[in-house]
Structures are given as C-alpha cells and as structure tokens.
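Hi P.,

Sorry for the delay on this. The queue was packed all week, but I finally got your sequence through. Input first:
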Amino acid sequence: MTLSGFPIQRDDEPTKPVVTASSLLPPGGTDQDRARARLLAGALAPGVGDYKVVVIPGSPHAKERPRAGEGRVHKSARDKDAEARTGWLLRPAFRKPWAGNLAIGAVFFRPTRQHVDTDNLLKHVCDAGNGIAWFDDAQITGQYGVLELDSVHPRTLLVVTRHVSSMDRSDIVKARPVRRSR
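Then the structure:
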C-alpha cells in the first residue's frame, strides 16, 4: 500500500529499511568517495544523471559570523582566504557556472570531533561556488550535509547536480554585483 509513492508500514509488518547510513555513505576511506558521490547524487536528484564531483582536500572550513566594524559588516580574513581556496579548487570542474536549479550534497570529513555546525560548512561551500560553479547560491534549491570523522584524510566530498523544484531559479544568470568598498 502506498501514499503518494511512499510505502505505508503496517504495525504487523516487520520493518524493512529502504536506506541505511551505510547504504548511502559506504564505510571506507578515500577509495569509496566515488561510490559515495554516485549514491549522494542519486539521493539528491533521482533520475538526473548530470552531476559533478569535487574533492576538496584539507580540513573543511566553517563559515564564521560576519564582523561589524567601522560602520559596516565584513567577512573575516580567514573566511575570505578559505572561500578563495575552495573557489580555485572548484574551477577545474566547472568551465562556466551552471544555470537553473541545483542541489548540493557534501560529506565533510573532519580531522577531529570538534563541534561544528553542518549548515556553516554548507554556507562556506555555497559562497565559495558563487560565480564559479553556479551564478548565485540562490539557485541551490536542495542541499544535504553530513559530518564524518577521518583524521588521516580530512576533506570535503562535494556533489553538485541539477535539481527539479517548483521554486524555479532559471532566471538567475548573473552573479550578484560585487560591492566595492569606498
């Protein structure tokens, strides 16, 4: 029995997991990254075969809070440097920014168990990809972030795919104008 394509579990039926953590993100080291990316792309946009995978080496950077000073709000130097580095690592995979609706999935392999918010890690990737992988991060209508521990090979496994959404973002074809400081 189904409701809108989702199976309804009756109380007298044994539970049958459809997706488990290990089926979506198979255990293993960097040798499993391609398999993880393929599964993640399928979960983000079922049936869409057009996706890109980028592995960003090093400890994933979390977006910091904006700082206020001298009558304006600005990014920290660490954020600017980390976004520039991530942007340069995205460039080889994207000859030009993708237009339309997009979904991103990221597995952040952190070197320590230090507490960090997944949304701040995703914000960093979204901002770093502006004008490189996509025109504007407003195009991202689906996202999925996972934290994992890998003290030997910290990295970010990023999957970018086309995304079907009722929130049409095909009108975003230019990056937001950069405000020049006075």
